[in-house]
Amino acid sequence: MPDFKQLFVNNKNWADRIEQEQPGFFKQLSEQQAPEYLWIGCSDSRVPANEIVGLLPGELFVHRNVANLVVHSDMNCLSVLQYAIDILKVKHILVVGHYGCGGVKAAMTKQRVGFVDNWLRNVKDVYVMHRDKVDGLSDENERLNLLIELNVMEQVRNLCHTSFVQEAWERGQELTVHGWVYSLRNGRVKDLRVSHSCNDKIDDIYTVDLAEFIKK
């Protein structure tokens, strides 16, 4: 219990420090939320979204799950996505994986971890799609790192296939989807250079018929 109570002490110290450094910060924060970024990252406790990119509370809208997945049947993720795009009008969506991801490793090595195995089936699908490329590497860590990168790339594609993203582009809203990987070893972010800001490069089978949307 003493350790638990320390969290309240930490909170008070943090709040006092922020208010001292930026008087009126919390009053302003309570009155509006206008982030330009949506972060979709892993639930791993070693990956603190705001701190990694040096942003304060209110500047980054965050959604996290095991292995940073964008699954089209996940109402939680889709709700966050729709709210971020349509209500908050974010300009950038960041899919951020991290090297050493336990979820991706469990999926690749067929490790049983419980109920979450069902969720990680989505990572296994990514592995199957890129099996030759991943298995072409002899070093186990290199294979894991490659699958982590490929998983981020596939989640970027999944985002671009959603109606919310495509509708935003169709109406001319400024929105770019990015794929990054964070290194726990040095704290640096790697840009995988798979950014998309329009429908042009999306396979036609995934494009949404926006005729009715345009009429509205």
Automatic annotation (TrEMBL):
Binding site residues for Zn(2+): 42, 44, 98, 101
Classification via CDD domains: beta_CA_cladeA
Enzyme class: lyase
Cofactors required: Zn(2+)
Known EC number: 4.2.1.1
GO BP, one annotated term: carbon utilization
Reaction(s) this enzyme catalyzes, per UniProt: hydrogencarbonate + H(+) = CO2 + H2O
Cofactor binding remark: Binds 1 zinc ion per subunit.
Coiled-coil regions listed: none
Keywords for the protein's UniProt record, in alphabetical order: Lyase, Metal-binding, Zinc
Signal peptide feature range: none
InterPro entries: Carbonic_anhydrase (IPR001765), Carbonic_anhydrase_CS (IPR015892), Carbonic_anhydrase_sf (IPR036874)
MF terms in GO: carbonate dehydratase activity; zinc ion binding
PROSITE patterns: PROK_CO2_ANHYDRASE_1, PROK_CO2_ANHYDRASE_2
Superkingdom in the source lineage: Bacteria
Similarity comment text for this entry: Belongs to the beta-class carbonic anhydrase family.
Function: Reversible hydration of carbon dioxide.
Cited PANTHER family: CARBONIC ANHYDRASE (PTHR11002:SF76)
Protein name (database record): Carbonic anhydrase
Gene: can
